[in-house]
Amino acid sequence: RLTSVQLAERSEAWLHDGRDVALIIGGADGIDPALKQTADEAIRLSDMTLPHALARVLLLEQLYRAWSLRNNHPYHRA
Fold first, then answer.
1. Is residue 77 part of a domain?
2. How does pLDDT run across 19-63, given as a tens digit for each residue?
């Protein structure tokens, strides 16, 4: 679990890390354990089960919010 501020900090670290970042939204049965083992970290959007379309929108909004925090844009109110 991350707050918006923590996601902004993580995304800043991703920018400076020099590696590719892949964000995967799990299926109805979650993410295959073998795939999970290859992940450097996991981020939870919610404790609730969400439809894929909604999860995509939530993730996109949180990435935009993280960008706005990093760039002092007024979108986010901390």
1. no
2. 899 999 988 888 899 999 999 999 989 888 899 899 999 999 999
